[in-house]
Write a structure and sequence with these properties.
Blueprint lengths: L7 H11 L2 H5 L10 H19 L1 H9 L2 E3 L2 E3 L4 H10 L18 H14 L1 H20 L2 H13 L2 E6 L15 E4 L5 E4 L15 E9 L10 E7 L1 E3 L5 E4 L20
The structure holds flavin-adenine dinucleotide.
Flavin-adenine dinucleotide binds next to strand 3.
């Protein structure tokens, strides 16, 4: 079985000798937490987690694959425990803003983490990777209320996230998106449509999944200009940081694919 060894020596050489990371980041406000000791400790711990926890699950996870059981996706043996360790270690919030529960470290620290995780176990890394897409979207475009409701549990890794663009009739050409969003009297929107190939579209790693969905309002112009973004949680937030009743989103099937069978495009 292939064994992953984190390239810490190369990474530290690049950081310290080539890019003068400490000199660069300790001058920036966003980098004041990235002291050489902290950076060193994070790289060592991340390498250990990837070598000892994620890498041993890569082959077994691919052989076992994900299963769809009564509309719920079950990840392979060991994935739930590995994800718990990942979330409890604060890894999802490594480069997320401190005001939403993150550690406020530079985005480049997150890139080193993603590089190690992706090489140790690409299937596993897809779950937190897609959450990162949802986090960035809500951080950049969400209201303060949406940030408090969704960004905080996403940053803690208690909730996962997805990016729902692709539909049966459109992938690259998103101008053909058909999913409809109908405004409701209470200010919410009722979405109807089908998405395919959604990485981490359903799984059993987190207590909720926050889907970022591309859809069209009734009066939207044709093409990409008429696309809006909606937050569609698998379970509706209960207003206290937890989950309430199930929303109307369901997983119809798992995609068949080569090489990353432990990742769940649904
Ligand atoms: C493992 C996996 C995970 C995925 N995860 C997600 C996800 O999380 N969320 C999500 O929304 N989607 C996801 N996708 C879907 C992915 O984004 C689409 O596959 C992608 O957008 C391409 O769409 P398509 O497969 O329909 O190919 P097509 O759009 O049919 O493209 C096929 C080929 O035609 C070319 N082409 C298409 N239109 C044009 C044009 N107008 N002019 C010139 N060339 C063109 C493309 O460049 C490509 O080479 C995933 C796919 C895979 C395989």
């Amino acid at each position: 079985m292939p064994v992953y060894k984190a390239p810490l020596r190369d990474m530290k050489f690049l950081l310290n000798e080539v890019f003068d990371y400490p000199g660069h980041y300790t001058r920036l406000k966003t980098g004041e937490n990235a002291t050489p000791d902290i950076v060193d400790a994070i790289l060592n711990e991340c390498g250990k987690f990837c070598e000892e926890v994620l890498s041993p699950l890569y082959q077994s996870g691919d052989e076992e694959g994900c299963k769809l059981d009564n509309g719920e996706v079950i990840t392979p043996k060991g994935y739930r425990e590995a994800y718990q360790q990942y979330a409890q270690g604060g890894w999802q919030g490594l480069s997320a803003p401190e005001e939403y529960g993150g550690q406020g470290l530079p985005a480049s620290m997150g890139l080193f983490k993603q590089e190690m995780m992706g090489t140790a176990n690409w299937s596993f890394s897809m779950y937190p990777g897609l959450s990162m897409g949802a986090m960035n979207t809500i951080f950049l475009h969400g209201s303060e209320d949406q940030k408090q409701t969704y960004l905080v549990p996403l940053t803690e890794g208690r909730w996962g996230g997805t990016m729902c663009l692709t539909e049966p009739q459109c992938g690259t050409d998103l101008g053909q998106v058909k999913t409809k969003a109908a405004p409701q009297e209470d200010g919410s929107f009722k979405l109807s449509g089908t998405k395919i190939f959604i990485s981490s579209g359903d799984h059993d790693l987190t207590e909720n999944i926050v889907h970022i969905v591309l859809a069209r309002l009734p009066d939207a112009p044709k093409g990409t200009r008429g696309i809006s973004l909606f937050i569609v949680p698998k379970f509706l937030p209960d207003g206290n940081g937890g989950v309430g009743e199930a929303n109307g989103v369901t997983c119809g099937s798992l995609e068949k694919k080569m090489g990353i069978k432990a990742s769940a495009p649904a």
